[in-house]
Backbone:
């Protein structure tokens, strides 16, 4: 699976107490857009992108969604964490396929 966030496209806008604010390119099903993002001060390789919606297949409610890209210190590989709705990590919920742009 390719990463949702293209971390190399982070464009700095300003700083807050928690980190850098900016924008980043996100790709969902062959559609790439620039969305708001933040970069952690404590871990500059951790970027969280906003401006997406998540929807479970079994429901009609649209949830605000975020995607966080982190680097695994053991392997050096980037991986994405998708958060919306309840924090359900069960494999039956394929959250990547339930994302869309707002």
Residues:
């Amino acid at each position: 699976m390719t990463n949702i966030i293209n971390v190399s496209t982070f464009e700095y806008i300003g700083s807050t107490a928690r980190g850098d604010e900016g924008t980043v390119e996100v790709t969902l099903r062959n559609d790439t857009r620039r969305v708001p993002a933040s970069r952690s001060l404590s871990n500059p390789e951790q970027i969280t992108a906003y401006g997406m919606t998540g929807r479970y297949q079994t429901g009609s409610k649209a949830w605000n969604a975020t995607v966080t890209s982190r680097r695994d210190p053991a392997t050096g590989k980037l991986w994405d964490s998708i958060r919306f709705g309840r924090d359900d990590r069960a494999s039956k919920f394929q959250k990547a396929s339930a994302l869309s742009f707002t």
